[in-house]
Amino acid sequence: MAAVVAVIWFWAARGLWNLNPQDWMFVVVIAITYLIFDFVAILGGTPFQSILPSIILSGIALILGLLPGTQKVFGR
Description:
Layout: H1 2-17, H2 21-43, H3 48-66, H4 68-73
Helix pairs in contact: 1-2, 2-3
């Protein structure tokens, strides 16, 4: 499963590198989705330390995606 998630993130990074606005939106949506899943996992009893890398990666991706400069580059 980790390999599938890595492929998704690398595919999204490639789209961002090419300045594709659809991939920018995909990154924002995927980051929010992963944060929701992480929150549900915490409620389900998964140790926080197990989910921390996913939370950090998704949080950084979401913050970078929602910065005004990033939105300006992608025409939002």
